[in-house]
Write a structure and sequence with these properties.
CATH topology: Creatine Amidinohydrolase
Mean pLDDT: 98
Number of strands: 15
Low-confidence stretches: none
Number of helices: 4
Shape: globular
Largest sheet: 5 strands, antiparallel
Strand order of the largest sheet: 8-7-9-14-15
Structural class: alpha+beta
Order of helices and strands: HHEEEEEHHEEEEEEEEEE
Radius of gyration: 17 Å
Helix content: 25-40%
Distance between the termini: 30 Å
CATH superfamily: Creatinase/methionine aminopeptidase superfamily
Number of domains: 1
Strand content: 25-35%
CATH architecture: Alpha-Beta Complex
């Protein structure tokens, strides 16, 4: 069942989303050659605590960290560790909080130093696809219009959409109905209406769409070793159009 939020609830979700955006902004400044993803996890926890927010991922279904840090061929759910980032890496950071009983969730993919042309293009196209999907978060659209906006833009540029992981509704729970695939034909599924809040998160691969999960039970990687990028925002449908909740 899709939970429609009231304007007051969306306002509280905006507070949670702003905290997510603030923490990601701090992390963006810390991503550099030589830093470890475990250190980034520590920073995220500290920044959330300063804002009296609880990190959303730590303990969720047994996940042991507050950040998901996915490097290069890692698609999503990469676990922080002692590996130091090196120039040329791309790093996807996924972060969420619980604040005033509501969740906020967002992700960004960042370059470490100078990256390859294809890595930069992959990140650019993935982020562009997110904003094309956000533009469809209006009462004039159906759910699959959001999905198709991602797929059509990404495939036009020669990249692949991951099928195994999708976006989701969000609110008092991190994952609510409906699921939000990043692929599909337009004009299908539920009609969007004010109060629907979705976490839209394109996960896009350089080469093929197939992924596998490593033995740690969490880290998903591309099966062909190609790069992957991930961007995400929490977005509400309003009478005045889409409202991105996870911004400063």
């Amino acid at each position: 069942m899709v939970v429609v939020k009231t304007p007051r609830e969306i306002s509280r979700m905006r507070d949670a989303g702003r905290i997510v955006a603030e923490v990601l902004a701090v992390l963006r400044e810390k991503v550099c050659e030589g830093v470890t993803t475990l250190e980034l996890n520590r920073i995220a926890e500290s920044e959330a605590a300063k804002r009296k927010a609880k990190t959303a991922f730590k303990g969720y279904s047994g996940y042991p960290y507050s950040l998901c840090c996915s490097v290069n061929e890692q698609v999503v759910h990469g676990m922080p560790g002692d590996r130091s980032l090196v120039a040329g890496d791309i790093l996807s950071i996924d972060f969420g909080v619980i604040y005033k009983e509501f969740y906020g969730d967002a992700a960004v993919t960042l370059p470490v130093g100078r990256v390859s042309a294809v890595a930069q293009r992959l990140m650019t196209v993935t982020e562009e696809s997110l904003y094309r999907a956000i533009d469809c978060m209006t009462v004039a659209h159906r759910l699959s219009d959001v999905s198709n906006a991602v797929q059509s833009h990404v495939e036009m540029h020669g990249f692949s959409v991951v099928r195994d992981f999708v976006g989701h509704g969000i609110g008092r729970a991190l994952h609510e109905s409906p699921q939000v695939p990043n692929f599909g034909q337009p004009g299908r599924g539920m009609r969007l209406k004010p109060g629907i809040v979705l976490a839209i998160e394109p996960m896009i691969n350089e080469l093929g769409p197939d992924v596998k999960v490593l033995d740690d039970g969490w880290t998903a990687v591309t099966t062909d070793g190609g790069l992957s990028a991930h961007f995400e925002h929490t977005v509400a449908v309003t009478d005045n159009g889409p409202l991105v909740l996870t911004t400063l």
